[in-house]
């Protein structure tokens, strides 16, 4: 039985003999019902688990960058295949598109990712979502839309401002990309 923390003792007195577990917060229908602190702890655990998964994905991407994808549910009802990659506006494949706007190299890479992956994703019932970052910091349009959906849901579940959640999400992603980049550079230096 879920009751307010202030009513927990009274509920135990009334229902304790029946063997009913009295709590002030618990998972319910895919979410969490309870006090704000407990909701925060629940969401923090979920975010920590998600961050751990992103870290593992980033580690795998060091050796298998094109195979780095994660299947997550999206609001469309389809499973999303996130294809994570970093592109340079100076890359010969994106050089012509790079001068158009700040994220045009990323958008060109998104288009190439769709051409390479859409058929297989459709066959599996997935939705291909390329998450492309440019080396100069710009993100592709689809990545920003996916992050916007994610931070909206996180803000709702954590009762925080969307802007604060967005800032935290991009800060964490930036940190992971910097670490992966440093690891890649050090690996090249060691191999040379």
Could you walk me through the main structural features you see in this protein, from its secondary elements to its overall organization?
- With 192 residues, the protein is an alpha+beta fold.
- 57% of the residues lie in helices and 16% in strands.
- It contains six helices and five strands.
- It has a three-stranded mixed beta sheet. Strands 1-2 form a two-stranded antiparallel ribbon.
- The termini are far apart.
- The model is unreliable at 66-76 (pLDDT under 50).
Helix content: 55-70%
Radius of gyration based on Cα positions: 22 Å
Mean pLDDT reading:
74
The portion of residues forming beta strands comes to: 15-25%
N-to-C SSE series?
Answer: HEEHEEHHEHH
**Total DSSP helices:** 6
From the helix content, strand content and strand pairing, which structural class follows?
alpha+beta
What is the CA–CA distance across the termini?
A: 63 Å
Widest β-sheet, arrangement of strands: 3-4-5
Biggest sheet character: 3 strands, mixed
User: Stretches where pLDDT falls below 50 for ≥5 residues?
Assistant: 66-76
Give the beta-strand count. Answer: 5
Give the helix/strand layout.
Elements: H1 8-15, E1 25-28, E2 31-34, H2 36-63, E3 69-73, E4 79-87, H3 95-98, H4 104-124, E5 126-134, H5 141-158, H6 162-191
Parallel strand pairs: 4-5
Antiparallel strand pairs: 1-2, 3-4
Helix pairs in contact: 2-6, 5-6
Task: Quickly list its features.
three-stranded mixed beta sheet, two-stranded antiparallel ribbon, 192 residues, elongated, alpha+beta, 5 strands
Describe the structure concisely for a colleague.
This protein is 57% helix and 16% strand. It is of the alpha+beta class and 192 residues long.
